[in-house]
Specification:
This protein is mainly alpha-helical. The chain folds into three domains: 185 residues, Growth Hormone, Chain: A (Up-down Bundle), CATH 1.20.1250; 55 residues; 236 residues, MFS general substrate transporter like domains (Growth Hormone, Chain: A, Up-down Bundle). The chain is built from 21 helices and no strands. Helix 6 packs antiparallel against helix 7 and helix 19 packs antiparallel against helix 21. It is globular and about 70 Å long.
Length: 507
């Protein structure tokens, strides 16, 4: 078997932290956390400011692209950043990503049209994707495998914190200082983080001579971009199976096939193909894909379910999500410490996927009028399930990979999580839309149920609100079943993992 796919026990025994001094190591980690919080927050903070932006620029049909442009760019470059870190050293690659993100934020804040804003969001995404990958790769240089699990949980907690405060913060900043402030606030944060990393984080020069796989990078970016574009096919082309949608996915398949052909022949592939020969690596990619489908992809739909079937306002539904966030935080921190103590991670992948499968099977049984405390308890269970498995794929693939390929492996697992979310969002949307339209019921006071806002719903007569709630509850039943089915695939992959034990570093 190729040396790349052997668990790195020998390398772990000789592990030396990039920052040996514990205090400086924690300072470096704090700056990294600030960077990842900034990048994650930006994609959440924009959601509540979008109506204001559209009100100024118009062009409602491009509403979704303010978010999709960021996701497209970030997803396309994630594996590339991982490989660049392996080749050139992670410090300057991380700083370059933060620089791009900060400049992109400035351009967003100065945008004079919707087209300029979308282009600036692409620039932001080119930096944001690098930040998300580099943080986990640098953690692998700072902390030994077992300790790393605990700090990865802190990284995951920071992601969740950004997701929790982002929408609220975006609304407050937009109301007080205008929508441009949500982007411009990144400038001082980005400058502080870059300065801190420049002063504290050492540069570890890779031992091998850099050889950039330009063809592989372009082909992989093309394959990923095609996948994300196809996942947005309902908005772009009207249907995932339209001529345009099929053409895009055909281009993506051609890029993927050509990428495999190129990667087999270049000395420094973007993602070394021998990694896929390791069953642990491949299975963890499946776990990551499905966890992204429910951990990220389900959130907007759970929020829509709450507002359409319980009558909660957007702000009250947002408050209820604190139960989800609290569960994720508790699960992530608990799993991180237990993985650090025991060195085992398979059991947490199994707990996570089992819990999520059960959660969405229960969601599928909910009906209008379900007590809010019951829903809150279910959201806590959902959060705990997501949290328990949050860092497993990253910790697992880093342990299964040769140290020289840690960045590439981390980029691959991060990419699959984002891809899972993108694909799942389209699947859920198609299922929901199809089942809502299939219930051809005339509701007094409603012309088109698709255009019904929470405010308009609250103004309807009680009988009409009950009819809307019943329609959406029936439509969400198959949506939640599809979520349970997707995460069940991840459960099978988790069960199939070897019960690997992370090595302990002894002085």
């Amino acid at each position: 078997m190729d040396a790349r796919v052997q668990p790195a026990a020998e390398a772990a025994a000789a592990f030396t932290s990039l920052v040996p001094d514990p205090r400086r190591r924690l300072m470096a980690f704090s700056f990294l956390m600030a960077g990842v919080f900034m990048a994650t927050l930006d994609n959440q903070i924009v959601s509540t400011a979008l109506p204001t932006i559209v009100g100024e620029f118009g062009e409602l049909e491009r509403f979704a692209w303010v978010g999709s442009a960021y996701l497209l760019a970030a997803s396309a470059v994630m594996p590339v950043y991982g490989k660049l870190g392996d080749l050139f050293g992670r410090k300057y690659v991380m700083m370059a990503a933060i620089f791009l993100f900060t400049i992109g934020s400035l351009v967003c804040g100065l945008a004079g049209s919707m087209n300029q804003l979308i282009a600036a969001r692409v620039l932001q995404g080119l930096g944001g994707g690098g930040i998300m990958v580099s943080i986990f790769s640098i953690n692998a240089d700072l902390f030994e495998p077992r300790v790393r699990a605990r700090y990865q949980s802190y990284s995951s907690l920071m992601l969740m914190a950004a997701g929790a405060v982002g929408p609220t913060l975006g609304g407050v900043l937009s109301d007080l200082f205008g929508w441009r402030s949500i982007f411009l606030v990144n400038l001082p944060v980005g400058i502080v983080v870059m300065t801190g990393l420049a002063l504290i984080l050492p540069y570890r020069k890779p031992v091998r001579k850099p050889k950039i796989d330009f063809a592989g990078a372009i082909l992989l970016a093309g394959a990923v971009a095609s996948l994300v574009l196809w996942a947005d096919g309902r908005q772009l082309f009207g249907s995932l199976l339209s001529t345009g949608g099929i053409a895009v996915i055909a281009i993506g398949i051609a890029c993927a096939v050509a990428w495999i052909f190129v990667e087999r022949r270049v000395p420094e592939p973007i993602v070394p193909l021998p990694l896929f020969a390791n069953p642990t690596f491949s299975l963890l990619l499946v776990v990551s894909l499905t966890s992204g489908a429910v951990g990220i992809g389900s959130v907007n739909y759970v929020a829509l379910f709450l507002q359409t079937t319980t009558g909660l306002s957007p702000s009250h539904a947002g408050l209820l999500f604190m139960a989800l966030t609290g569960g994720i935080a508790a699960g992530s921190l608990t799993a991180g410490r237990l993985i650090s103590m025991t060195g085992r991670y398979k059991i947490f992948a199994m707990i996570s996927t089992t819990g999520s499968t059960v959660t969405f099977l229960i969601y599928a049984q909910l009906h209008p009028g379900t007590p809010i405390p019951v829903i809150a308890a279910l959201m806590v269970l959902q959060g705990l399930s997501v949290g328990f498995g949050q860092q497993v794929p990253v910790v697992g693939v880093q342990n299964a990979s040769d140290p020289r390929d840690v960045g590439a492996a981390t980029g691959a697992v991060t990419l699959t999580r984002m891809a899972g979310a993108s694909i799942a969002i389209s699947i859920y949307g198609a299922v929901l839309s199809g089942f809502v339209k299939a219930q051809d019921v005339a509701i007094p006071g409603i012309g088109n149920i698709d255009e019904l806002t929470p405010a308009a719903l609250a103004a309807l007569p009680p009988r009409s609100r009950e009819m809307v709630a019943a329609i959406y509850a029936n439509a969400f039943h198959p949506v939640f079943l599809s979520m349970a089915g997707l995460i069940a695939i991840g459960l099978v992959a988790a069960i199939s993992l070897k019960n690997t034990r992370l090595p302990t570093i002894r002085a």
